[in-house]
Amino acid sequence: MTLELPPTLQARLDALPAGLRAHVGRVREIARELGKAHGVDADLSELTAAAHDVARHIPGPRLIEEAERFGVGVSAVERYAPVLLHGPVGAAWLDADGAIDDRDVIEGVRWHTTAHADLAPVGQVVFLADKLDPHKAAMYPFQESVREAAFRSLPDGILAFLDGALRLHIERGELVHPTSTDTRNALLLAAAC
Ligand SMILES: [Fe+2]
Ligand SMILES: [Fe+2]
Q: Where are the alpha helices (DSSP H) in the chain?
C-alpha cells in the first residue's frame, strides 16, 4: 500500500491491535480493487477503508460514552449491541481530527456496519470490501455470492450481503439494525423503479 494517510489517521491505525490492523490492511486492498472495477477513485476508496475501523477495538460501555459525548443518538438496539456504534463513533473522531474533509469518506466510515441508502459509491465500496475480507468467510457463509454480486454492481452486492446477513440474524433470533432494513428496502424500491 502506497497511499500516504493523514498523520492523525496513521497514528490511530498504529494504535490498533495487530489483528484489527491486519483486517484493515486487507480491506484497503479489496477496496482499491473493487473501487477500480466500478470507476470509483481508488485512493479515496483506500482512505475510507483505512479509516473504517478506527473505533472497532473500543469496549461497548466506552463506545456508548463516546457516542453521547459527540451527540450521536444511541438507539435501544445500539445500547443492547454497542459494537454497532463503532462506525458512528469513528466518524465523529475523524471529524474532530479535522484531517479528512471529504464527506463521502466520513459517511462511509459512519455507515460501514449497517450500510445506508444514501451511501456514496466510495462508501458502498468500503461497506462491501469490509464484508469481503477472506477472514470473514466463516462468519458469512454466503460471502462468495456477495463477491460475485459486488463486482457486477455495488447496489447488487449490498443487497446480496443484507439478504444473507438478515437471514442469519433472524435464524439466530438476533436483533436487526433498522438502518440495514431501511437500506434493503431502498435498494429493492430503486431496483423496482
Ligand atoms: Fe467495522
Ligand atoms: Fe472492518
A: 7-14, 18-37, 42-51, 60-69, 76-80, 86-97, 103-110, 121-131, 143-152, 154-171, 178-192
Where do we find the cell 440474524?
A: 169
pLDDT for 1 = 58
How close is the Cα of 57 to the center of ligand 1, in Å? 9
Q: Do 127 and 165 meet the contact criterion of CB atoms below 8 Å apart?
A: no
Between CA 148 and CA 56 the distance in angstroms is 27
Q: How many CB atoms lie within 10 A of CB 8?
A: 15
Alpha-carbon distance of 121 to 163, in angstroms, equals 20
Give the three-state DSSP class for 41. Answer: coil
Closest listed residue to residue 154, CA positions, set 11, 45, 65:
45
Provide the grid cell at 162: 443484507
49 CA to middle of ligand 2, Å? 8
Q: Summarize the confidence of residues 178-183 as an average pLDDT.
A: 97
Architecture of the domain delimited by 7-192: Orthogonal Bundle (1.10)
Q: What per-residue confidence (pLDDT) applies to 7?
A: 97
Cα dist from 66 to 57, 82, 121, 162, whole Å: 13, 11, 28, 27
Three cell numbers written together for 144: 462468495
> Has residue 193 got a pLDDT over 90?
no
As residues whose CB is below 5 A from the ion ligand 2, the structure lists 53, 130
